[in-house]
Amino acid sequence: MEIQQVEGSLVCTQRVPGLHHVHLRVLRDARGKRVVATDPVGASPGNWVFVVSGSAARYAMGDARILTDLTVGGIIDHWEPDT
Amino acid sequence: MEIQQVEGSLVCTQRVPGLHHVHLRVLRDARGKRVVATDPVGASPGNWVFVVSGSAARYAMGDARILTDLTVGGIIDHWEPDT
Amino acid sequence: MEIQQVEGSLVCTQRVPGLHHVHLRVLRDARGKRVVATDPVGASPGNWVFVVSGSAARYAMGDARILTDLTVGGIIDHWEPDT
Amino acid sequence: MEIQQVEGSLVCTQRVPGLHHVHLRVLRDARGKRVVATDPVGASPGNWVFVVSGSAARYAMGDARILTDLTVGGIIDHWEPDT
Amino acid sequence: MEIQQVEGSLVCTQRVPGLHHVHLRVLRDARGKRVVATDPVGASPGNWVFVVSGSAARYAMGDARILTDLTVGGIIDHWEPDT
Fold this sequence. Notes:
EutN_CcmL (chains A, B, C, D, E), 5-stranded antiparallel beta sheet, mainly beta, Carboxysome shell protein (chains A, B, C, D, E), 6 strands, 1 helix, CsoS4B (chains A, B, C, D, E), bacterial microcompartment (chains A, B, C, D, E), homopentamer, EutN_CcmL_sf (chains A, B, C, D, E), globular
């Protein structure tokens, strides 16, 4: 699982069916690259989290048909980002 | 999910069976690299979108047997590309 | 789907079972890196193609048990490679 | 499978359901990048291990529904890290 | 499929169940990065091979429950490594 930091939420009105009621977070990795993840945990901006990719991302949402390839798996309590 | 910008459509007459009626978009990431994605949303050139990869890309098309590993998941309303 | 250019065919006599009658192509991406793909379309050296990765690569071969993680999905008619 | 070195364990109290009783390890690759993996083997800090990614990571945990995309597959007895 | 060169075998006594009787090879790519793969073909050190990743790696072993994400698919007879 990769380690990312929460930056904010995504404003996105036109989506594929099945994502209407899912929270989407914008994350940044240590290099500053932004990605989008589904979030069943409820992370806040500034939180460091670990994210699950691939088909496991769908299992984490409780429904393997959910359209996601990246899901927040947990909020890290103590962490020192890569330097 | 990665963040990409729509550049145009792909002209491709010789394809594997199962892709004849699927719209293919050419996208570019922040570094300028071009990739090809299926698009059930109807994105236009210039739009910033997020794309879903892996087996989730097939679920997003409504048929897990569709030959794709990248699908447009939504059009982003407000976005600031990586710099 | 990634965009690649066909370079040639692969000479490979010792293979795992299930690949004996499958055509294998050597492709190059824009950076010059060579990879190997199964080809149900019949691409020729010099053709620009898009390739499908992951489990979708197996569906594209018409048999999900085929040993491949990369399949030629179509030959691109008009294309401008990354510069 | 990638080769990684164990750095420590992850302190993470807010997690998705299904990860409550799974040990999470922090690993580092040869370039120093840290990732998070589930560990059914019991590796210790300093150990060099090989890790399995994707859906195989879930099979390695004995339950394909476990939320992981990276699992420690074995502890390497003799190894010379990349230089 | 990626192209790799066989370097040797892996000495690894503590493993997850299901890998006890599987041969593990250490491979190197053109950049010198080492990875670990299961080998049903019987490649020797110095051989150039192509490797299959993801869930196809498990199908290549004849048992989709085998813990692997990388399997040697074939030994390349003639090959010129990237320069």
